[in-house]
Amino acid sequence: MRYIKAAASQEVEAENRSIRQQVEKMLSDIEKRREQAVIDYARQLDGWEGEFVLSPSKRSELTTQVSEQLRQDIRFAHKQVVRFACAQRESLTGFEMETEPGVRLGQRVVPVSAAGCYVPGGRYAHVASAIMSVATAKTAGVQGIVASSPPRGQSISPAAAYAMDISGADIILQMGGVQAVATMAYGLFDCPQADIIVGPGNAYVAEAKRILFGKVGIDVFAGPTESAVIADESADPMTIAVDLVSQAEHGTNSPVWLFTTSESVGQAVAGLMPKVAADMPNADVVNAAWHNHGVIVLCESRQEMAEVSDQYSPEHVQVLASDLPWWKENLHNYGSLFLGEGSTVSHGDKCSGTNHILPTSGAGRYSGGLNVQKFLKILTYQELSVEANKEFSAVGSRLSRAEGMEGHARACDWRLRKYYPDMHWDFEVYRQKRYL
């Protein structure tokens, strides 16, 4: 492999110590001063003096501002996301089995009690993100869903409010940044304390989730959006350029990559990118992302393209190459896969039905994106009869002593002595004194 275009910036995206220090300080302050600290930060950082919790009347007022066409589009996207999330939910079921006579094991699938869904609202009004997080939590069966989005002017985005409303948010907060994440994590302003916090956000939001992980669950460790296109000689360079530009507009630090076996396709895309970017209203953002983080890699074979893609582990992978089933079978590390020219990442970002909250920064090697199962707990149980204890307590006793855990062994020994008082054992079985 060789680079037709390499990234101008060779810096590895590392943890920003300054951001971490600021976020740690804010979280500590909010944990101590609670609602008053949130009020102070909202005033200081967002200039917000209004109510945080969207009242029923304000919710109705905002949603009525949304045009009928946009309402229809939001409902369409909501339908697709819920349909896919329902299939995910049905794929995971509880069960019970008898593994040995008298030994019954099983699992229950139980939703978390409360979820916090962060919906970005900085450069863009992320309507689709509201659906992706809130509707998925609702489909999982979460009873208490808090959705939060930063205000834009006098309120949060009406379209985002409508999306959160139809998706099933029980409480909608007009609040952004670290203070919003903390509010959901700590259960402020009469919100239920979140068991899990999900949703994309800026570096401060991502760092707040990272720090709070352990106290609450999170969906993914999110970094800048990243997208890759895999292309052979049959791909249309203009389609590639348009799609790469579409993803580069996420931000100046959003990498976009092309892996190709065709030098002519690679060179053509390299020439087209500045032209397509120049036609964008946010050309400065796209050009910065492409210049600093854009990459074109020329590979010798489709096997090498697959290997390179898996090494990068992109958030999104788009395949514009022949034999699509081969790629679906042989690509392993990514957030979401888009097969064929008809499938652009924009579909997944907005309305196709799969979730767009996905792993970045190589996390696709070990994690998938947000899905119904993120809101579910697999709870296991067991029930052993007296008869089963004859074998299982014996094995448990011996294994415990092999590990040096005498208390564990005695819990098994107690049952052996209690259930089988006349049995002779060919290993040590402690005779516990009775104190009652």
Report on the architecture of this protein.
This protein has 436 residues and is α/β, with parallel strands linked by helices. It folds into three domains: 17-91 and 100-219, Nitrogenase molybdenum iron protein domain (Rossmann fold), CATH 3.40.50.1980; 224-368, Rossmann fold (3-Layer(aba) Sandwich), CATH 3.40.50.1980; 386-436. Helices cover 45% and strands 16% of the residues. The chain has 16 helices and 14 strands. The protein has helices at 17-33, 35-46, 56-63, 68-90, 127-140, 158-167, 177-186, 203-212, 237-248, 263-278, 283-293, 302-312, 324-330, 345-350, 386-402, 406-419, and strands spanning 2-5, 95-100, 103-111, 114-118, 144-149, 171-174, 196-198, 217-218, 227-231, 256-260, 295-298, 316-320, 336-339, 376-384. Helix 5 (127-140) links the parallel strand 4 and strand 5 (144-149). The protein starts with a strand and ends in a 17-residue tail after the last helix. The model has no long low-confidence stretch (mean pLDDT 95).
Question: What are the defining features of this structure?
Answer:
single chain, Rossmann fold, six-stranded mixed beta sheet, 16% strand, alpha/beta, 436 residues
Fold-level CATH name of the largest domain: Rossmann fold
Strand content: 15-25%
Contiguous helical run count: 16
* SSE run: EHHHHEEEHEHEHEHEEHEHHEHEHEHEHH
The major beta sheet can be summarized as:
6 strands, mixed
- Strand sequence of the main sheet, in spatial order? 1-11-10-9-12-13
Instruction: From the alpha carbons, calculate the radius of gyration and give it in angstroms.
Output: 27 Å
Q: Which structural class fits the helix and strand makeup?
A: alpha/beta
Q: Give the termini separation.
A: 76 Å
Helix content: 40-55%
In total, the number of strands is: 14
Task: Give average pLDDT, whole number.
Answer: 95
Broad shape: globular
CATH class of the largest domain, named: Alpha Beta
CATH architecture of the largest domain: 3-Layer(aba) Sandwich
Our count of domains comes out at 3
